[in-house]
Amino acid sequence: MFNWGAFLGWSAVSGTVCWPGPVVGALYAGGVFWTLVYDTIYAHQDKTDDVRVGIHSTALLFGEHTRSVLAAFSASSMGCIALAGYLNAQGAPFFIGTGLAAAHLARIIYRTDFDDRASCGRGFVACGFVGVFIWMGALGDYNWLQLRAYE
Fold first, then answer.
1. Alpha helices of the chain — where are they, by DSSP H?
2. 74-115 confidence digits (pLDDT tens)
3. Residues contacting 127, CB < 8 A, separation 6+
């Protein structure tokens, strides 16, 4: 449900409902992949409890392959978000923000110890800054376009 904002935001800004248009579709897919990353990191905090009570979480599903699966999801997320930016004719600041977000995700996946609850908690919280980097890039892009309009 969190990613539903891509559709709502697009409708509010564009004044149309063109679902799933290529820009909003790519943005939504990027959000879904990002959600799978942070939700799986969060799930690793409770995986021993999940086994005990019979819950089938992504942490248990991916198991020893979590790092590589999350790397693929992260690359897919950032690729889809970059594609949305390309299709929407975003400028350099947007792609710089997306690149910083991708580097941040890579750092999280590299540093998180999926067998340590505290490390998973830190990784989960750090995933929120991915959105901050993308938002900052989008804001920078908007401001850059505004400055260019005055030239």
1. 5-14, 22-44, 47-53, 58-62, 66-87, 92-111, 117-149
2. 999 999 999 999 999 999 999 999 999 999 999 999 999 999
3. 34, 37, 38, 41, 105, 108
What does the block give as tokens for 79? 């690729």
User: How long is the chain?
Assistant: 151
Cis status of the peptide bond prior to 93, with omega within 30 of 0: no
| Cα angle for residues 14, 19, 24 (degrees, 5° grid) | 65
- Compute the average pLDDT of residues 139-150: 88
Two tokens, residue 53? 């009570």
In single-letter form, the type of residue at position 28 comes to: Y
Which residues lie below 8 Å from residue 134, measured CB to CB, with a gap of 6+?
81, 97, 98, 101
Q: Name the least confident of 2-16, 38-52, 55-69, 101-115.
A: 2-16
The pLDDT of residue 19: 59
Determine if residue 100 is left, alpha or beta; phi over 0 gives left, psi from -120 to 50 gives alpha, anything else beta.
Answer: alpha
- State the pLDDT at residue 28: 87
